[in-house]
Design a protein that fits this description.
The structure is a single chain. By secondary structure, the protein is an alpha+beta fold. It has one domain. The chain has one helix and four strands. It has a four-stranded mixed beta sheet with strand order 2-1-4-3, with helices on one face. The longest helix has 15 residues. It is globular and about 40 Å long. Pfam families: YIEGIA_cap. InterPro entries: YpzH.
Length: 62
């Protein structure tokens, strides 16, 4: 049984850390906004949120 995962979105407060990629990136201004945006996207995309750093979250398709 194979379980493939896919990063479907990235939410970050660090615009300067961005490089090219395939997932949509949402740039927010504050950590509170970081959590709120990720939570909303999690529901919309039916995905799970994972913290990469205190300033960056990724959403992974289930």
């Amino acid at each position: 049984m194979s379980t493939e995962t896919e990063i479907v979105a990235i939410v970050t407060t660090k615009k300067e850390m961005l490089q090219g990629g395939g997932a949509p990136v949402f740039i927010v201004n504050a950590n509170k906004e970081l959590q709120e945006t990720a939570m909303n996207l999690e529901k919309i995309l039916d995905a799970e949120t994972h913290e990469i750093s205190p300033t960056t979250l990724i959403l992974v398709a289930r």
